[in-house]
């Protein structure tokens, strides 16, 4: 049980990392284009975000997993990552709308800088704080989604270790001592890992927020 718990940590951290990378890449791209370009492009992309936002995360992950017609570690990684980009896109769009009228952006336009460089080199770096907070939040949410998928049998498949699979096995053995530990220990590990990333996000937010007073 200890060896499965330790190896399951690798799955949970891996899916969190891949999901955050996918969500940041898609969210920053779509949110930056929507916020900077505006007009009908913004309306179309906002409509897409609203549609994806209205679908429960676990249902969307299940639909993507079924659409890919496969089960396994990497399928779970990609499916979870493709459901989390909307949060990033909405934050980036809102920040972009407030930053695009700033003086330094106007100066860049006067100097003839291309829009892609303005966005990548001057606008996105000013969103570091909010992006770090939402990335750590998505990391924690991805761990929970993976555990839920594995518990339902749609995520990581045996013999690969997964905390969700261990909870499922313990659920089937409830009433026995083995079932108690198989349910309690992975559940505790999931809770502690999610809590740690939420606390990490709060700390990084305070560290990167220029408005936070120095102690």
TrEMBL record:
Q: Which GO terms describe its cellular component?
A: plasma membrane
Specify where it is mainly localized: membrane
According to the record, the signal peptide region is none
Tell me the ranges covered by the ABC transmembrane type-1 domain, including all copies.
9-201
Keyword entries, A-Z: Cell membrane, Membrane, Transmembrane, Transmembrane helix, Transport
Q: Which branch of life, at top level?
A: Bacteria
Ranges that cross the membrane:
12-37, 44-67, 131-158, 178-201
- Could you tell me which Pfam families the record lists for this protein? BPD_transp_1 (PF00528)
A biological process (GO) of this protein is: transmembrane transport
Give compartment(s): Cell membrane
Q: How does it sit in the membrane?
A: Multi-pass membrane protein
PANTHER family recorded? D,D-DIPEPTIDE TRANSPORT SYSTEM PERMEASE PROTEIN DDPC-RELATED (PTHR43386:SF1), OLIGOPEPTIDE TRANSPORT SYSTEM PERMEASE PROTEIN APPC (PTHR43386)
- UniProt record similarity statement: Belongs to the binding-protein-dependent transport system permease family.
Q: What is this protein called?
A: ABC transporter permease
Q: What is the lineage of its organism?
A: Bacteria, Pseudomonadati, Bacteroidota, Cytophagia, Cytophagales
